[in-house]
Amino acid sequence: MRWRPPKPPPAFSCTPVARREFVVAAAILLDPRGRVLLVGNDWQGHGRVRYTLPGGMVERGESTLDALSREVKEETGLEVTSIEQLAYAVHVEDRRRNDRAVSFAFLAKYQGLLNPRDPDGFIVEARFFPVEEVATTVPIPPLRDPLVNYLRDRETGRFYAYAGWDGRGYRRV
Predict the structure, then answer these.
(1) What is the distance between the terminal CA atoms of the chain, rounded to a whole angstrom?
(2) How big is the CA angle at 41 (ends 85 and 96), to the nearest 5 degrees?
(3) Which segments within the chain are labelled E, that is strand?
């Protein structure tokens, strides 16, 4: 009997998950009473609505500021008339989910009436919330904490880094 190398173990049927990387533009829109506009997202279509700033992914070939105006129009029906300042930036490097997101939040002015017409079908509501309610309304730490900090002290240019969407590994510069 001739020696043969052992057969390799059967390959797992799991295929690696592709890495997701995206850039997001979000708008901080305040009404004359100082309330902030939030949109209710049902991303997975299961009726679990999560509130966030209006905004979304920057598409290939699109500038961040153009994406901001487009997303605000789609999600709220409002037209961005001016972008006042970069409020803050957030980087989430989530190794568990194999994704990376870099988000820019801009303070902007707007005109028009609320009339959400999200072509993706995720936005189920858009309304203004008192600033004091943001901390209990926005559930995801990387989306909530920078916004709460900005609305509290209006300090611009902060950078936030997280190691996951659950808020772990938080750092602020």
Answers:
(1) 68
(2) 85
(3) 20-29, 36-41, 50-52, 55-57, 79-94, 99-111, 123-129, 158-162, 171-172
Burial class (CB in 10 A: 0-12, 13-18, 19+), 12: exposed
The 8-class DSSP code of residue 42 comes to -
Q: Is residue 40 part of a domain?
A: yes
Amino acid identity, position 15: T
| pTM of the model as a whole | 0.86
What's the total number of domains in the chain? 1
Which residue in 71, 65, 79 sits closest to 111, CA to CA? Answer: 79
Q: What is the pLDDT of residues 27-60, one digit of tens each?
A: 999 999 999 999 999 876 677 889 999 999 999 9
What gap in Å lies between CA 139 and CA 152, rounded to an integer? 18
DSSP class of residue 47?
S
Phi, psi (degrees; rounded to nearest 5) at 82: -160, 150
> Is residue 130 in some structural domain?
yes
User: Under a CB-based contact definition with an 8 Å cutoff, are residues 103 and 26 in contact?
Assistant: yes
Helices then strands, counting H and E runs in the chain, come out as 3, 9
Identify whether 11 is part of a domain: no
At 149 the three-state DSSP class reads: helix
